[in-house]
Amino acid sequence: RKCLSRIRETRFLNAYITVSEDKALKQAEESEKRYEKGRALGILDGIPIAIKDNFSTAGIETTCASHMLKGYIPPYNATVVQKLLDQGAVLLGKTNLDEFAMGSGSTDGIFGPVRNPWSYSRQYREKRKPNHHRVDEDSNWLITGGSSGGSAAAVSAFTCFAALGSDTGGSTRNPAALCGLVGLKPTYGLVSRYGLIPLVNSMDVPGILTRCVDDAAIVLGILAGHDVKDSTTTQDPVGPFILPILRDVSKLCIGIPKEYHTPGLSSETQALWSKAADLFESKGAKVVEVSLPHTSYSIVCYHVLCTAEVASNMARFDGLEYGHRCNVNVSTEAMYAATRREGFNDVVRGRILSGNFFLLKENYDDYFVKAQKVRRLIANDFVKVFNSGVDILLTPTTLSDAVPYVEFIKEDNRTRSAQGDIFTQSVNMAGLPAINVPMALSSQGLPVGLQLIGRAFSDQQLLTVARWFE
Ligand code: GLN
Predict the structure, then answer these.
(1) Which atom belonging to ligand 1 lies closest to the Cα atom of 420?
(2) Which residue's alpha carbon is at the smallest distance from atom 5 of ligand 1?
(3) I want to staple 98 with a disulfide (CB 3.0 to 4.6 A). Which of 83, 108, 155, 341 is the partner?
């Protein structure tokens, strides 16, 4: 009940699209009964959580923040949602995002942008200079980052204890960094995507947003493992994700990718990154500079592969099976076209168009096939670094701390979700686990996070080091 009233108090953040209050109260009551009767409890029994609105939830509207799916009520739960419910978690509602998770601001969904709770924090307000924009002026609130900004705001504003996001190119780690949270992107194939409405099937992973590393490990322990409904999930035993206390980091080798010193990186984030490397070194870890030579191609490579997969994924939204259908009925084709024009925003339509362009017969080899080759080179860069003895890579997560909404939307909405993903996207192309760990507050009083990246299926080690580091 406290969480539900907190949701009401913080409604202005626009973190939730749907609050499933009645269902949540019923789940909480059942949990209480189990407790009173001394029955076996699940790992998350009675713990309120939130789910990004691109995961299917049985009986609860699932919109992807798009007109296309408004009113769509899935008949089944995503595997990850079912696993959380099976452990007694109380599902409070569905959180806001960029339409179909395309973006990195949580500003482009049909329900409007999500506000970063830190816009209203004492730390931020006190640090702002007099006469500078005042945060209580409506126009000066900050973005959460995205696209899982609703989930990040929900956890950061204390409306729930954990939330699911999705991470295709950084969408869990990016808002975690800007909202001061732990944001975990597990290894591709460790967690089932069944019921996660796809953006880029070959890169999508359910992500976990929590306030500390231990909580993320608990949730990962519940979610991880083979799912017969997702053939890309590993059949190997996973877990247990019970983190040993790491006292000695002297056997660790930490890599600092030199290509990540990009021009757009803020001097404060840069300074914090160096400080963190020094910390590892002062505690005995070996810190080495490494090279990921294909980094500069990652944004364009991601763009070609992402939009190509988007073009084929979005073909299912034709006005027949799901959600929206327009009133045009002169022909089937006219109905498809009008439905899709009405249903998708310009970001989604733009990606469908560019994806179809890359997939045209005459372009296929020059764009799609070439991008797949570049993706392999990007993935191999990481493999080489890890094979050279590096255990973990330490990098920034975002270029800077959160920016005001009015600044963010000045850029064209197709470019604004690109450059800022420089530290996160190649990780998805390589399928590796990575985590944002909140590190410090900037001079503006806003959270800054750093990213740790591990080798494939080293999620346990990654979390262990992240906990030492947090
Ligand atoms: N910002 C990236 C994009 O727009 C990543 C999104 C995501 O991870 N869902 O595609």
Answers:
(1) 1
(2) 169
(3) 108
